Amino acid sequence: MAEDAAQATFLRLHLKCRQFEQGRGLRPWLRAIANNQAVDLLRRNRRHNVVSLSVAARPRGADEERQPLCDVLGVTEDGVVADAELSEDRERTRWAVDQIPAKLRQVLILLVYRGLKQREAAKVLGIARGTVKSRMNKALRSLHEAFIVARRRALFVSGR
Hints:
- This protein is an all-alpha fold.
- The protein has seven helices and no strands.
- 9% of the residues are buried.
- The model has no long low-confidence stretch (mean pLDDT 78).
């Protein structure tokens, strides 16, 4: 919960930075935001029953020992988490690649995904090898910027 409160605090700080008044202290303002986020999170969690997914619920009156939910479902916890993260990473990567301009995307796909060498990509595209290098450099910078946007989108979608 502390990590969620900290993340929400800095997200709120970023979103409300234009409202900060010059001459006021940053620490008190940041502390007030953090306090409000923590209180909101505690209130929200008090309203909802929190159930741990690492332990299966035991029926009332049952004497059997609790088992981890992953054992009950017959899956490994690490595998489920890794699969979910991999799926999210793939989705974010697809979205980011789709955001870069088509000329840059062509070079990126040929060099990275198809594994062509620069001279081979230049031949396929009918452009100079130097142009391939230049476009690849621009594609990587554009992809980096798109990943930053994709990460921000993921934070907003997840509600954190």
